[in-house]
Amino acid sequence: MSKTPETDGAVPAKSVNPMLKSALEFGPIAAFFAAYILLKDQSFDIGGTAYDGFIVVTAGFIPLLVASTLVLWRLTGHLSKMQIVTLVLVVVFGGMSVWLNDERFFKLKPTLIYLLFGGALGFGLMRGTSYLEAVMDTALALTREGWMILTRRLMYFFFGLAALNEIVWRTQTTEAWVYFKTFGLTAAIFLFFMTQGKLFKDHSLEAEEETAE
């Protein structure tokens, strides 16, 4: 049995309580949203410089995400490439927002994340392979054609999310963007996979085996 790039030579991920895992993955985002709602209209004078609530909340979100990611890695012994890339971009662009007292850098982060993921999937497609399969093959059992179709759709979807994030943060208020980032993007990804039911059914390995019989 061949190994995927995600697991080749790596120690298998340890099992962890699903509730704890979800809390570590989504807890920092929920905390960011709650803190923003509480502090959005406040201003803080730190070292003679005025920082609005969004910047202060961003400053707290960065170490919280780092800590939760490290705990998740310690418990499971594994981090996905998506988690690593997200953490790096949060630290870099969130840090720039705090350092320069400019919220635009943090708002740009989702755009770059989705462009990177969409670009990586597109690069794999040009090579005739599905990098998505390497990441999700343990979660979905699809034919090669199914993986290629899903990868192509997800690539376009990621590019669409990148464009949508640019439109929202450049044309809407910070509060509107926070709601969009917290709920809109999450809901969009959930709906995307919910609408792929026919693909999962038509290109499942079980359906192919039944047809072959």
TrEMBL record:
Keywords: Cell inner membrane, Cell membrane, Membrane, Transmembrane, Transmembrane helix
Chief place where the protein resides: membrane
Cellular location(s): Cell inner membrane
Ranges that cross the membrane: 22-39, 51-72, 84-100, 112-132, 153-170, 176-194
Gene Ontology CC: one annotated term: plasma membrane
Keyword Electron transport: no
Membrane topology: Multi-pass membrane protein
Alphabetical list of PANTHER family matching this protein: INNER MEMBRANE-SPANNING PROTEIN YCIB, INTRACELLULAR SEPTATION PROTEIN A-RELATED
Annotated function: Plays a role in cell envelope biogenesis, maintenance of cell envelope integrity and membrane homeostasis.
Family: Belongs to the YciB family.
Protein name: Inner membrane-spanning protein YciB
Organism in which the protein naturally occurs: Thalassovita autumnalis
Organism lineage: Bacteria, Pseudomonadati, Pseudomonadota, Alphaproteobacteria, Rhodobacterales
Gene: yciB
